[in-house]
């Protein structure tokens, strides 16, 4: 990666300190797993519903999504899939911004989630009012926000992006001579800025999961596995990204595991993705990149505590009772839809 200009941080912002919650993973007997899966299959049919899951959710949920005609994917494809599918109810297994995006794009559909507590540290670090004040202070800048934000933040933005297309979109805006304001992930923002050379002012949020990856320990691990390719999600710190052979969204990292000739991979993203990676490339050896959690207590090392709130029990409950339905203020939804639709239209041109 060639460094084209220095990164500009919005230093003076007061953003909330985010603490990852302590979450117990759901543990079920084989019998209960089988019973719940059967019930969910039936409820999906009865409610004309489709299950859309992120790669970081539990393997059973991912498998169920695929075998019932839903999808498991990155956040860009989750948005696309829900928008194009004819089901009247979308059940989104992921975190709140994913359910909100589905509802914004499909206001006429019912969107349910297994848990209403499934947040995201990036979304939490970017309160709508503080963000609006920030944007108002820089009226000459086009506003680009990561999809990991609330509906109200998306409504204030000119563009929404996911990690899958962030670099391409910012390169496109830079070519038009635009100066940008970027929120909320500082690591992704820094990476995009360095890759594109765009003039970006960056909000200082971060992902509690990806921030735990450690560059020094990764250097040691590379020495131990010299033939391994290093795959890194761009929400990771810059020093970790610099050690990567491939930087990309969850879907792009999965593709790399399938397509690269290496037989070993070191992976710096949520370890939920290993489920799909093992299915897609059973002959490859996969290792978790080292985190701050080695020898310590960590609530978010390589696994998102909010994604872990999705389980088969609360998924079945959501379908049975209509729990955790996503509601979006109509006016906010309309404005947010505009900036999300621009992302989908841009993605369709790539
Ligand atoms: P992807 O768009 O790559 O799936 O990332 C979403 C996310 O929340 C990563 O932490
Ligand atoms: Fe948010 Fe990080 Fe969890 Fe992704 S992994 S949902 S960015 S907290």
Number of domains: 3
The topology string of helices and strands comes to EHEHEHEHEHHEHEHEHEHEHEHEHEHH
Q: What is the mean predicted local confidence, pLDDT?
A: 93
Strand content: 5-15%
Number of strands: 13
Indicate the structural class.
alpha/beta
CATH architecture of the largest domain: 3-Layer(aba) Sandwich
Considering the protein shown, what is the CATH homologous superfamily of the largest domain? NadA-like
What radius of gyration results from the CA coordinates?
20 Å
Spatial strand arrangement across the major sheet: 1-9-8-6-7
Query: Termini distance?
Result: 21 Å
- Biggest pleated-sheet summary: 5 strands, parallel
| Inertia-based shape | globular
Q: What small molecules are bound in this structure?
A: 1,3-dihydroxyacetonephosphate, iron/sulfur cluster
Low-confidence stretches: none
Number of helices: 15
CATH class of the largest domain: Alpha Beta
What percent of residues adopt helix (DSSP H or I)? 40-55%
At the fold tier of CATH, the topology name of the largest domain is: Rossmann fold
Outline the structure in words:
By secondary structure, the chain is α/β, with parallel strands linked by helices. It folds into 3 domains: 112 residues, NadA-like (Rossmann fold); 104 residues, Rossmann fold, CATH 3.40.50.10800; 79 residues, Rossmann fold (3-Layer(aba) Sandwich), CATH 3.40.50.10800. It contains 15 helices and 13 strands. The strands form 3 sheets. The protein has a 5-stranded parallel sheet with strand order 1-9-8-6-7. It has a 4-stranded parallel sheet with strand order 3-2-4-5, with helices on both faces. Helix 4 packs across helix 15. The structure holds 1,3-dihydroxyacetonephosphate and iron/sulfur cluster. The site of 1,3-dihydroxyacetonephosphate has 11 residues, from helix 3.
